[in-house]
Amino acid sequence: MRSTFLIFLLLFLASCQQKYDIILKGGIILDGSGQESFSGDIGINGNTIAMIGDLSSATATNVIDVKGMIITPGFIDVHSHAGRGLVHPDRSDSKILLTQGITTVMINPDGGGAVDLIKQDSALMHDGLGVNVVQMIPHGSIRRQVMGMEDRLASEDELEQMKELVKRGMDQGAFGLSSGPFYTPGSYSDTRELVEVSKAITPYNGVYTSHIRDESNYTIGLEAAVEEVITVAREAGITGIVTHIKALGPPVWGMSETIINNIETARAEGVIVYADQYPYNASATGLGAALLPRWSQAGGRDDFLRRISNPDTLSMIKAEMTQNLARRGGADRIQFRYFEHDTSVQGRTLAQVASEWSMDAVDAALDMLKKTSGIGIVSFNMNDDDVHRFMKQEWMMTCSDGSYPRWEEGVPHPRFIGSFPRKIRKYVIEEKVISLAQAIRSMTGLSADIFHLNDRGYIKEGYIADIAIFNPESLTDKATFTDPFQYSEGIDYLIINGELAISDRKFNDIRKGMILKKK
Question: Distance between CA 94 and CA 85 in Å, rounded?
Answer without folding.
Answer: 9
